[in-house]
Write a structure and sequence with these properties.
It catalyses: Hydrolyzes free adenine bases from 7,8-dihydro-8-oxoguanine:adenine mismatched double-stranded DNA, leaving an apurinic site. The protein is α+β, with helices and mostly antiparallel strands and 345 residues long. The protein folds into 2 domains: 212 residues, Endonuclease III, domain 1 (Orthogonal Bundle); 119 residues, Nucleoside Triphosphate Pyrophosphohydrolase, CATH 3.90.79.10. It has 15 helices and 7 strands. The strands form 2 sheets. Strands 1, 4, 5, 6 and 7 form a 5-stranded mixed beta sheet that branches. A two-stranded antiparallel sheet has the order 2-3. α1 packs across α11 and α2 packs across α3.
Length: 345
Protein backbone atom coordinates (compact mmCIF):
# COMPACT_ATOMS: atom_id res chain seq x y z
CA UNK A 1 0.00 0.00 0.00
CA UNK A 2 1.33 3.45 -0.91
CA UNK A 3 0.60 5.79 2.01
CA UNK A 4 -0.06 8.96 0.04
CA UNK A 5 -2.33 7.29 -2.52
CA UNK A 6 -4.59 5.81 0.15
CA UNK A 7 -4.59 9.08 2.07
CA UNK A 8 -5.56 11.20 -0.93
CA UNK A 9 -8.22 8.70 -1.97
CA UNK A 10 -9.70 8.89 1.55
CA UNK A 11 -9.58 12.69 1.38
CA UNK A 12 -11.41 12.91 -1.94
CA UNK A 13 -14.24 10.79 -0.52
CA UNK A 14 -14.45 12.35 2.94
CA UNK A 15 -13.30 15.97 2.82
CA UNK A 16 -15.55 18.68 4.18
CA UNK A 17 -17.10 21.21 1.83
CA UNK A 18 -15.19 24.35 2.85
CA UNK A 19 -15.02 27.65 0.92
CA UNK A 20 -11.22 27.94 0.94
CA UNK A 21 -11.00 24.55 -0.78
CA UNK A 22 -12.78 25.95 -3.82
CA UNK A 23 -9.99 28.37 -4.71
CA UNK A 24 -6.25 28.58 -5.16
CA UNK A 25 -6.26 32.33 -4.51
CA UNK A 26 -3.42 32.83 -2.01
CA UNK A 27 -5.30 35.68 -0.31
CA UNK A 28 -8.15 33.40 0.76
CA UNK A 29 -5.82 30.49 1.56
CA UNK A 30 -3.72 32.82 3.74
CA UNK A 31 -6.84 34.22 5.40
CA UNK A 32 -8.18 30.77 6.23
CA UNK A 33 -4.84 29.48 7.53
CA UNK A 34 -4.32 32.47 9.84
CA UNK A 35 -7.86 32.10 11.19
CA UNK A 36 -7.53 28.36 11.75
CA UNK A 37 -4.34 28.61 13.80
CA UNK A 38 -5.31 27.15 17.21
CA UNK A 39 -8.97 27.31 16.14
CA UNK A 40 -11.42 24.60 15.14
CA UNK A 41 -12.89 24.76 11.62
CA UNK A 42 -16.44 24.98 12.96
CA UNK A 43 -15.50 28.07 14.96
CA UNK A 44 -13.40 29.70 12.26
CA UNK A 45 -15.75 29.21 9.30
CA UNK A 46 -18.26 31.99 10.18
CA UNK A 47 -15.37 34.41 10.68
CA UNK A 48 -13.86 33.48 7.32
CA UNK A 49 -17.18 34.12 5.59
CA UNK A 50 -17.55 37.48 7.37
CA UNK A 51 -14.05 38.57 6.35
CA UNK A 52 -14.57 37.31 2.82
CA UNK A 53 -17.68 39.46 2.54
CA UNK A 54 -16.25 42.54 4.26
CA UNK A 55 -12.82 42.35 2.59
CA UNK A 56 -13.13 40.59 -0.79
CA UNK A 57 -9.57 41.58 -1.75
CA UNK A 58 -6.33 42.15 0.12
CA UNK A 59 -6.67 45.85 -0.74
CA UNK A 60 -10.02 46.03 1.08
CA UNK A 61 -8.46 44.48 4.17
CA UNK A 62 -5.42 46.73 3.98
CA UNK A 63 -7.56 49.88 3.74
CA UNK A 64 -9.87 48.93 6.64
CA UNK A 65 -9.49 50.63 10.05
CA UNK A 66 -7.89 48.37 12.64
CA UNK A 67 -10.94 48.65 14.89
CA UNK A 68 -13.16 47.20 12.16
CA UNK A 69 -10.77 44.28 11.70
CA UNK A 70 -10.66 43.62 15.44
CA UNK A 71 -14.44 43.93 15.73
CA UNK A 72 -14.98 41.28 13.05
CA UNK A 73 -12.33 39.12 14.73
CA UNK A 74 -14.01 39.49 18.13
CA UNK A 75 -14.42 36.09 19.79
CA UNK A 76 -11.86 34.25 17.67
CA UNK A 77 -9.09 34.80 20.22
CA UNK A 78 -5.33 35.22 19.89
CA UNK A 79 -5.85 38.79 18.71
CA UNK A 80 -2.21 39.23 17.70
CA UNK A 81 -3.21 37.11 14.68
CA UNK A 82 -5.68 39.81 13.63
CA UNK A 83 -3.15 42.60 14.07
CA UNK A 84 -0.52 40.66 12.11
CA UNK A 85 -3.14 39.85 9.48
CA UNK A 86 -3.87 43.54 9.03
CA UNK A 87 -0.18 44.48 8.91
CA UNK A 88 0.56 41.80 6.32
CA UNK A 89 -2.41 42.86 4.19
CA UNK A 90 -0.99 46.40 4.12
CA UNK A 91 2.45 45.09 3.15
CA UNK A 92 1.08 42.91 0.35
CA UNK A 93 -1.27 45.62 -0.92
CA UNK A 94 1.06 48.62 -0.73
CA UNK A 95 4.53 47.09 -1.19
CA UNK A 96 3.85 44.01 -3.32
CA UNK A 97 1.09 45.44 -5.54
CA UNK A 98 -1.45 43.05 -4.04
CA UNK A 99 0.45 39.91 -5.05
CA UNK A 100 1.35 37.34 -2.42
CA UNK A 101 4.83 35.77 -2.61
CA UNK A 102 4.75 32.61 -4.69
CA UNK A 103 7.30 30.52 -2.78
CA UNK A 104 7.60 29.02 0.67
CA UNK A 105 10.80 30.94 1.46
CA UNK A 106 9.30 34.29 0.47
CA UNK A 107 6.03 33.61 2.28
CA UNK A 108 8.00 33.05 5.49
CA UNK A 109 9.01 36.71 5.40
CA UNK A 110 5.42 37.85 5.93
CA UNK A 111 4.45 38.95 9.43
CA UNK A 112 2.49 36.29 11.29
CA UNK A 113 3.39 33.57 8.78
CA UNK A 114 5.39 30.66 10.20
CA UNK A 115 6.59 27.37 8.76
CA UNK A 116 3.19 25.69 8.80
CA UNK A 117 1.26 28.59 7.26
CA UNK A 118 3.92 29.25 4.61
CA UNK A 119 3.96 25.57 3.63
CA UNK A 120 0.16 25.45 3.48
CA UNK A 121 -0.10 28.51 1.22
CA UNK A 122 2.83 27.48 -1.00
CA UNK A 123 1.49 23.95 -1.52
CA UNK A 124 -2.21 24.75 -1.86
CA UNK A 125 -1.91 27.90 -3.98
CA UNK A 126 1.22 27.05 -5.97
CA UNK A 127 1.56 23.27 -5.50
CA UNK A 128 5.10 23.73 -4.20
CA UNK A 129 6.22 20.38 -2.72
CA UNK A 130 6.73 21.45 0.89
CA UNK A 131 5.14 19.43 3.71
CA UNK A 132 2.96 20.94 6.43
CA UNK A 133 3.53 19.99 10.05
CA UNK A 134 0.94 20.77 12.71
CA UNK A 135 -0.78 18.92 15.54
CA UNK A 136 -2.79 16.81 13.13
CA UNK A 137 0.31 15.80 11.18
CA UNK A 138 2.26 14.94 14.35
CA UNK A 139 -0.60 12.70 15.44
CA UNK A 140 -1.10 10.88 12.14
CA UNK A 141 2.58 10.25 11.50
CA UNK A 142 3.50 9.33 15.06
CA UNK A 143 0.71 6.76 15.21
CA UNK A 144 1.12 5.31 11.73
CA UNK A 145 4.92 4.97 11.96
CA UNK A 146 5.09 4.40 15.73
CA UNK A 147 7.31 7.41 16.43
CA UNK A 148 7.93 8.06 20.13
CA UNK A 149 9.79 11.36 19.80
CA UNK A 150 8.40 13.97 22.20
CA UNK A 151 6.58 16.40 19.91
CA UNK A 152 7.29 19.29 22.31
CA UNK A 153 11.05 18.71 21.95
CA UNK A 154 13.27 20.91 19.79
CA UNK A 155 14.16 18.03 17.47
CA UNK A 156 10.60 16.92 16.74
CA UNK A 157 9.70 19.51 14.12
CA UNK A 158 12.62 18.71 11.84
CA UNK A 159 12.10 14.96 12.23
CA UNK A 160 8.40 15.05 11.41
CA UNK A 161 8.89 17.53 8.59
CA UNK A 162 11.46 15.24 6.99
CA UNK A 163 9.15 12.24 7.37
CA UNK A 164 6.15 14.12 5.94
CA UNK A 165 8.31 15.27 3.05
CA UNK A 166 9.38 11.71 2.29
CA UNK A 167 5.72 10.71 1.87
CA UNK A 168 4.64 13.76 -0.11
CA UNK A 169 4.07 13.26 -3.88
CA UNK A 170 6.02 16.03 -5.60
CA UNK A 171 3.32 16.58 -8.21
CA UNK A 172 0.37 16.70 -5.80
CA UNK A 173 1.48 18.56 -2.69
CA UNK A 174 -1.76 20.52 -2.43
CA UNK A 175 -4.04 17.51 -2.02
CA UNK A 176 -1.57 15.57 0.11
CA UNK A 177 -1.14 18.33 2.68
CA UNK A 178 -4.86 19.00 2.88
CA UNK A 179 -5.51 15.27 3.14
CA UNK A 180 -3.03 14.91 5.99
CA UNK A 181 -4.67 17.74 7.94
CA UNK A 182 -8.19 16.52 7.22
CA UNK A 183 -7.37 12.94 8.21
CA UNK A 184 -6.04 14.14 11.55
CA UNK A 185 -9.07 16.36 12.09
CA UNK A 186 -11.77 13.81 11.16
CA UNK A 187 -10.34 10.28 11.46
CA UNK A 188 -7.15 10.15 13.51
CA UNK A 189 -8.54 12.37 16.26
CA UNK A 190 -6.81 12.89 19.64
CA UNK A 191 -9.21 10.84 21.76
CA UNK A 192 -11.09 7.64 20.92
CA UNK A 193 -10.38 7.49 17.17
CA UNK A 194 -12.42 4.98 15.16
CA UNK A 195 -9.46 2.72 14.42
CA UNK A 196 -11.63 -0.28 13.53
CA UNK A 197 -12.91 1.59 10.47
CA UNK A 198 -9.62 3.31 9.59
CA UNK A 199 -8.09 2.69 6.17
CA UNK A 200 -4.65 2.36 7.78
CA UNK A 201 -5.45 -0.01 10.65
CA UNK A 202 -3.57 -2.97 9.14
CA UNK A 203 -0.32 -1.01 8.81
CA UNK A 204 -0.68 1.51 11.66
CA UNK A 205 2.00 0.75 14.25
CA UNK A 206 0.10 2.44 17.08
CA UNK A 207 -3.03 0.38 16.41
CA UNK A 208 -1.29 -2.94 15.88
CA UNK A 209 0.82 -2.50 19.04
CA UNK A 210 -1.91 -1.02 21.26
CA UNK A 211 -0.33 2.43 21.59
CA UNK A 212 -2.99 4.67 20.03
CA UNK A 213 -3.71 6.41 23.35
CA UNK A 214 -0.03 7.02 24.13
CA UNK A 215 0.97 8.51 20.77
CA UNK A 216 1.98 11.16 19.99
CA UNK A 217 4.23 11.69 23.01
CA UNK A 218 4.09 15.15 24.58
CA UNK A 219 5.95 15.57 27.86
CA UNK A 220 6.16 19.34 28.25
CA UNK A 221 3.21 20.91 30.02
CA UNK A 222 2.13 24.52 29.64
CA UNK A 223 2.58 26.61 32.78
CA UNK A 224 -0.64 28.44 33.58
CA UNK A 225 -0.77 31.76 35.44
CA UNK A 226 -3.87 32.87 37.36
CA UNK A 227 -4.89 36.53 37.18
CA UNK A 228 -7.74 38.29 38.96
CA UNK A 229 -9.64 40.98 37.03
CA UNK A 230 -12.32 43.24 38.49
CA UNK A 231 -14.04 45.27 35.78
CA UNK A 232 -15.76 48.44 36.98
CA UNK A 233 -18.88 49.24 34.97
CA UNK A 234 -19.49 52.90 35.72
CA UNK A 235 -22.98 54.37 35.51
CA UNK A 236 -23.18 58.15 35.87
CA UNK A 237 -26.07 60.61 36.22
CA UNK A 238 -26.70 60.50 32.46
CA UNK A 239 -26.49 56.72 32.24
CA UNK A 240 -23.12 56.95 30.51
CA UNK A 241 -20.14 54.73 31.18
CA UNK A 242 -16.38 54.54 30.66
CA UNK A 243 -14.38 52.24 28.41
CA UNK A 244 -10.72 52.36 27.51
CA UNK A 245 -8.38 50.81 24.96
CA UNK A 246 -5.76 48.34 26.14
CA UNK A 247 -2.61 49.93 24.70
CA UNK A 248 -0.03 47.93 26.66
CA UNK A 249 1.52 44.88 24.99
CA UNK A 250 0.11 41.53 26.03
CA UNK A 251 -3.34 39.99 25.88
CA UNK A 252 -6.11 41.91 24.12
CA UNK A 253 -3.82 44.63 22.79
CA UNK A 254 -5.87 47.46 21.19
CA UNK A 255 -9.18 45.96 22.31
CA UNK A 256 -11.51 47.88 24.63
CA UNK A 257 -12.49 47.17 28.22
CA UNK A 258 -14.06 48.76 31.29
CA UNK A 259 -11.73 50.33 33.88
CA UNK A 260 -9.80 47.46 35.42
CA UNK A 261 -8.74 46.68 38.97
CA UNK A 262 -6.37 43.71 38.91
CA UNK A 263 -5.29 41.98 42.10
CA UNK A 264 -2.45 39.53 42.61
CA UNK A 265 -4.60 37.06 44.57
CA UNK A 266 -8.34 36.54 45.12
CA UNK A 267 -9.77 39.31 47.30
CA UNK A 268 -12.98 39.13 49.41
CA UNK A 269 -15.93 41.13 48.07
CA UNK A 270 -15.83 43.67 50.91
CA UNK A 271 -12.19 44.43 50.20
CA UNK A 272 -12.86 44.76 46.46
CA UNK A 273 -15.63 47.29 47.17
CA UNK A 274 -13.21 49.35 49.29
CA UNK A 275 -10.55 49.24 46.59
CA UNK A 276 -13.08 50.36 43.97
CA UNK A 277 -14.34 53.22 46.16
CA UNK A 278 -10.75 54.42 46.50
CA UNK A 279 -9.76 53.71 42.90
CA UNK A 280 -7.23 56.43 41.93
CA UNK A 281 -8.46 56.67 38.35
CA UNK A 282 -11.95 57.84 39.35
CA UNK A 283 -12.38 61.60 39.52
CA UNK A 284 -15.90 61.37 40.86
CA UNK A 285 -17.65 60.34 44.06
CA UNK A 286 -18.78 56.73 44.17
CA UNK A 287 -22.33 56.32 45.43
CA UNK A 288 -22.60 52.49 45.39
CA UNK A 289 -20.78 49.38 44.27
CA UNK A 290 -22.21 45.91 43.78
CA UNK A 291 -21.32 42.72 41.92
CA UNK A 292 -23.33 42.20 38.76
CA UNK A 293 -22.74 38.47 38.22
CA UNK A 294 -20.69 35.55 39.60
CA UNK A 295 -17.04 35.15 38.71
CA UNK A 296 -16.23 34.02 35.17
CA UNK A 297 -13.07 32.01 34.53
CA UNK A 298 -11.77 32.83 31.06
CA UNK A 299 -9.10 30.34 29.98
CA UNK A 300 -6.32 31.40 27.63
CA UNK A 301 -3.41 29.22 26.54
CA UNK A 302 -1.08 30.36 29.34
CA UNK A 303 -3.41 32.27 31.63
CA UNK A 304 -6.64 31.72 33.53
CA UNK A 305 -8.44 35.01 34.08
CA UNK A 306 -10.80 35.14 37.06
CA UNK A 307 -13.16 37.95 36.08
CA UNK A 308 -15.78 39.85 38.08
CA UNK A 309 -17.98 42.71 36.87
CA UNK A 310 -18.97 45.43 39.35
CA UNK A 311 -21.51 48.19 38.80
CA UNK A 312 -20.15 51.50 40.05
CA UNK A 313 -22.85 54.17 40.41
CA UNK A 314 -22.16 57.89 40.77
CA UNK A 315 -24.46 60.91 40.92
CA UNK A 316 -21.84 62.93 39.07
CA UNK A 317 -21.53 63.36 35.33
CA UNK A 318 -18.40 61.51 34.28
CA UNK A 319 -15.93 63.33 32.06
CA UNK A 320 -15.62 61.53 28.70
CA UNK A 321 -18.54 59.26 29.57
CA UNK A 322 -20.17 57.51 26.60
CA UNK A 323 -23.57 55.97 25.92
CA UNK A 324 -24.14 52.23 25.63
CA UNK A 325 -24.99 52.56 21.93
CA UNK A 326 -21.65 54.19 21.28
CA UNK A 327 -19.40 51.92 23.32
CA UNK A 328 -20.96 48.69 22.06
CA UNK A 329 -19.55 49.41 18.59
CA UNK A 330 -15.97 49.00 19.80
CA UNK A 331 -14.06 45.68 19.63
CA UNK A 332 -13.87 43.84 22.96
CA UNK A 333 -12.50 40.56 24.30
CA UNK A 334 -15.28 38.00 23.94
CA UNK A 335 -15.79 37.70 27.70
CA UNK A 336 -16.62 41.42 27.93
CA UNK A 337 -18.73 41.32 24.78
CA UNK A 338 -20.77 38.46 26.24
CA UNK A 339 -21.26 40.36 29.47
CA UNK A 340 -22.49 43.42 27.60
CA UNK A 341 -24.92 41.34 25.57
CA UNK A 342 -26.43 39.50 28.54
CA UNK A 343 -26.07 41.59 31.67
CA UNK A 344 -25.53 45.25 30.87
CA UNK A 345 -27.67 47.96 29.37
Amino acid sequence: MVFYKSLIQWYLHNKRDLPWRKTHNPYFIWLSEIMLQQTRVAQGLPYFLSFQEAFPTVFDLADAPEEKVLKLWQGLGYYSRARNLHATAKHVAYNLNGKFPSSYKELLKLKGVGDYTAAAIASISYNEPVPVVDGNVYRVLSRYFGIETDISSSAAKAEFKELAGSQLPKDNAAEFNQAMMEFGALQCVPKSPDCVNCIFNVNCVAYTTGRVDSLPVKLKKTKVTNRYFNYMVVKDALGNTIVQKRTAKGIWHNLYEFPLLETVTPVPDKEVVKLIEQFPGFEFEVKSVHAIMPEVVHKLSHQHLHIRFWEVVTKDIVVNGQSYNKVKAYPYPIVIHNFMEKHWE
